[in-house]
Write a structure and sequence with these properties.
alpha/beta; 6-stranded mixed β-sheet; 21 helices; 17% strand; globular
């Protein structure tokens, strides 16, 4: 599909990479990895022809479509969400307009026997069949499924895009790209602005997509779940590993060990040659041999070793005063704007706990953090404990840096004690090694500023850390450094993040934001995700609603008349639950049956697509008719599935409220 041969890219004296050779095949799932600055984004731009290489060729068939999602793009602000998403089907819309125009002409004209009229009829039939085969009638349902999958509510569809933050507008661009269903998807950090639920939806979408996928991501769990092949840019070379990311890490470690052994052997050989030359340089009887050794030495090509993994660096927070036993106590905290964000939030955070705030964007995670910081008013009681010193990393933290200082000066001003001797090591671990440490803050990109702000926070003496999406611009090695630092941190930490791999093994409690409520879940992030999957099953509802035995002591102490009056209410509530559980079971069964039918019809449509692409079947009306009929049946079944799914969700919600 895409063939890359002898690719070379130069920006300075040293090439970014050279002699890159690989092929992107149909349905490939490729993770593009390497340190920041290695050339991953540059390679994606070359693949989509937005940038030209210094040397080499990129061969792409003329009929191959490519969709590219950059990290940063210019976004339109003049339409609604739904109208912006419809732009993905611009070709289909233009085709529909042509069909409507021809239809009007056919209705207005009366020269039925003329050749011109018959040609118009034939063009109309061809275009209409093409329109039906494209499945254009299902576009609105596809738009709705994609937007809701990426976290939008149906009430958001008619809102102007200018009302949304940059992250949400990036989601709209991602939705448009996915709706176009290009042959090759090039995605540069697609998860940066997604929450956990949206990332899981995107994982499933990409796994089932017929498109080839090449993606850059620092979300280890995401690339492990999506990709089956790993291409690494390292030491100016592009190496193709035909394995998943986890397997690639092991292979890379083995390869680096081999490189080290070969490098050591080569250095010993060079040392022996130089010793021979120095020893016999001035002996006439050895002159020929000395010259041979000199020529051999000149011909040796130095063995390069892959960049050292700086994640081995261990960074510790400086010591700080011990806080009180309960750094944060929330009691019935509520916050509303034009609508309630959350209400009656109550929890106690103990000293030393590390917890995660998770949930869809817009559900109040950052809002509660701002309440804790005292930045916005709220209702209820929120107490900050004794001796609590808060270190806060906000999503806009990078904007607060002094632009006149260099990277090194920014860190030098907050570093204390022995840590000042290791500033260069710390900067190197966060990709500010060498000359980069002398850059002025004002010339740094948004991602570089975020990393610098994170280093600054890591060096300040605090006993309560609040980190709002700290990993968005960190590569995997830098995330490992940060994760180990937080894990070794003696104080308390609140982490707002969608990065499952980062939270795994770091937090012991998860607070879920959703529907105006905050629910506490004990255990790590994967315990929480497993629990969410279980909660969607009918068995859990049955187990949770088992009737409790009456307490004999309570019966003796209570008024007999009151007990008699309350008994019918209890039995009525139990019967109501049982009936609702039966309805949930029937609806779940209907949803699964719909999903099975949809899968069968989608598979048949793929088969028909392949058959109709063959020249000998182009005019086979039996296949065309079956395709049209199946597509219509699929649309109807999709509508039934959506209605049943909404009914099931409503029943489960009602059961929880009983």
């Amino acid at each position: 599909m895409i063939s890359v041969e002898a690719l070379k890219v130069e920006f300075g004296v040293k090439p970014l990479f050279s002699d890159a050779n690989f092929v992107v095949n149909d349905r490939d799932r490729i993770a593009l990895v390497g340190k920041n600055g290695a050339g991953k984004s540059t390679l994606l731009k070359i693949l989509c022809r937005q940038q030209q290489p210094t040397e080499g060729t990129v061969s792409i068939p003329n009929d191959t479509t490519i969709g590219y999602l950059p990290q940063v793009m210019r976004l339109a602000d003049d339409t609604t969400v739904i109208d912006e998403a419809r732009k993905a089907f611009a070709d289909t819309t233009a085709l529909k307009e042509r069909i409507d125009r021809m239809n009007r002409q056919l209705a207005e004209r009366t020269d039925y026997e003329s050749d011109d009229y018959m040609q118009l009829v034939e063009r109309f039939s061809q275009e209409h069949e093409r329109y039906l085969m494209m499945g254009a009638d299902n576009n609105e349902a596809e738009i709705e499924r994609t937007l809701t999958g990426l976290g939008f509510e149906r009430t958001d569809f008619e809102r102007p895009t200018k009302e949304f933050s940059g992250g949400w507008r990036m989601r709209i661009e991602l939705a448009k790209l996915l709706l176009q269903r290009p042959d090759v998807l090039l995605l540069d950090e697609p998860t940066n602005h997604l929450d956990i639920e949206s990332i899981q939806w995107l994982e499933q979408f990409l796994s089932q997509s017929s498109s080839a996928v090449v993606l850059v991501s620092h979300d280890r769990a995401f690339i492990n779940n999506v990709t089956t092949r790993t291409i690494e840019i390292s030491c100016g070379r592009v190496i193709d590993y035909r394995v998943k990311y986890d397997e690639y890490v092991n292979l890379r470690r083995e390869r680096r060990e081999q490189q080290l052994r070969a490098y050591e052997n080569q250095q010993k050989e060079i040392a022996d040659m130089r010793a021979f030359i120095e020893r016999f340089r001035y002996q006439a009887t050895k002159a020929v041999q000395v010259q041979q050794k000199i020529k051999q030495l000149e011909k040796i090509v130095p063995i390069e070793i892959d960049e050292i993994d700086n994640s081995a660096l261990r960074l510790k927070f400086p010591p700080c005063l011990r806080s009180g036993d309960y750094p944060i106590i929330c009691d019935e905290v509520s916050k509303s704007y034009t609508r309630p964000v959350f209400s009656n939030v109550s929890f106690i955070l103990k000293r030393g706990e590390k917890v995660a705030f998770v949930g869809k964007n817009g559900e109040g995670k950052t809002t509660l953090v701002k309440c804790i910081m005292g930045e916005i008013p709220f209702d209820g009681q929120l107490k900050i404990g004794h001796n609590v010193q808060i270190g806060y990393f906000a999503q806009n933290q990078a904007q607060l840096l002094d632009e006149q200082l260099t990277v090194f000066e920014t860190i030098d001003r907050v570093a204390r004690g022995d840590i000042r001797l290791r500033i260069n090591d710390i900067l190197g671990a966060f990709m500010f090694g060498g000359e980069a440490s002398e850059k002025k803050v004002r010339v740094l990109s948004g991602g570089e500023r975020s990393r610098l702000a994170m280093i600054k926070l890591l060096l300040e003496p605090v006993n309560l850390l609040i980190l709002d999406e700290p990993t968005n611009h960190l590569d995997m090695q830098s995330k490992d450094v940060l994760k180990e630092a937080i894990r070794a941190f003696d104080g308390t930490a609140i982490i707002v993040s969608h990065d499952r791999e980062f939270l795994d093994g770091l937090v012991s409690k998860v607070y879920e934001f959703g529907g105006g409520h905050v629910r506490e879940h004990l255990g790590g992030i994967y315990d929480f995700l497993r629990k969410k999957n279980i909660e969607s099953l009918n068995e859990l509802n049955t187990r949770n609603t088992t009737p409790q035995k009456a307490d004999p002591a309570a019966e003796n102490d209570s008024d007999t008349a009151a007990a008699t009056a309350s008994a019918p209410q209890k039995s009525e509530s139990y019967a109501e639950r049982k009936e609702r559980q039966r309805r949930i079971g029937r609806t779940e069964k209907a949803v699964k049956e719909s999903e099975k039918k949809i899968e069968q019809m989608e598979n048949r449509l793929k088969e028909l697509d392949q058959l109709l692409m063959l020249p000998e079947n182009a005019s086979d009306m039996v296949l065309v008719t079956e395709y049209t009929t199946t597509k219509q049946a699929l649309d109807e079944e999709s509508d039934r599935w959506m209605a049943r799914s909404e009914e099931l969700e409503q029943l489960q919600q009602e059961l929880e409220n009983l």
